[in-house]
Amino acid sequence: MAKRKDKRVAIVAGVGPGLGVALVRKLAGEDCCVGMFARSPEFIGELATELGADALAVPTDVSNAKQVAAGFRKVREKLGPVEILIAHASGSVGEGLMKTTPDQFEQSWRVAVLGAFLCAREAVPDMLRNERAQLFSPAPLLRCAGAAVRFHLVAQSSRCADWHNRLPSNCGQKVFMWHMSSSIA
């Protein structure tokens, strides 16, 4: 399906009852069509019904590459090419360093960091074809990228085409250290 006339297409990955739903409402209020990714189909289904035809509920586990690819395909088919991505999913275990098991930490990392990566890989090809597209990602991932990258970048081909090449090779280590240091206090 072609993009709805004069409406930007956004995906919010990680729509829950707090900031996620607020982001969706803000985008819908700004005359955007919004694809909502979350693991809870009931919640995003009810929100899509409330917001109307310009909102699309797409039950998606963002830590699963196949589900992310299928979710983006569905948004493209129903709403059009993605111009805005807000990678907001988190899998925080909330127990701190000493009570978090390695499996819990890995699942949290898969949802927040790998999920943002998988969503960005799907979104960027659409964004490179559109001069007004934008990527947004959560603070822990931003911290590892440095001021030059700051995923608040406008995805114009000259600025966005090689953003992934500018990430430091130890990005994952920095995210891990930030996560652990923030939970010690």
Give a description of the structure.
- With 185 residues, the protein is of the alpha/beta class.
- The protein has a single domain, classed as NAD(P)-binding Rossmann-like Domain (Rossmann fold, 3-Layer(aba) Sandwich).
- It is 50% helix and 14% strand.
- The chain has a five-stranded parallel β-sheet, with helices on both faces.
- The radius of gyration is 16 Å and the shape is globular.
- The C terminus is likely disordered.
Our measurement of the CA-to-CA distance between the termini, rounded to an integer number of angstroms, reads 50 Å
* Uncertain parts: 139-185
Largest sheet: 5 strands, parallel
| Element-by-element helix/strand order | EHEHEHEHHEHHH
Q: What does the radius of gyration come to?
A: 16 Å
Percent of residues in beta strands: 5-15%
Per DSSP, the total helix count is 8
Quickly list its features.
about 180 residues; alpha/beta; Rossmann fold; five-stranded parallel beta sheet; 8 helices; 5 strands; about 50% helix; globular; disordered C terminus
Topology of this protein?
Layout: E1 8-13, H1 19-29, E2 32-38, H2 41-51, E3 55-59, H3 65-78, E4 84-87, H4 96-99, H5 102-128, E5 134-136, H6 139-145, H7 157-160, H8 171-184
Parallel strand pairs: 1-2, 1-4, 2-3, 4-5
Short description:
With 185 residues, the protein is an alpha/beta fold. The chain has helices spanning 19-29, 41-51, 65-78, 96-99, 102-128, 139-145, 157-160, 171-184, and strands at residues 8-13, 32-38, 55-59, 84-87, 134-136.
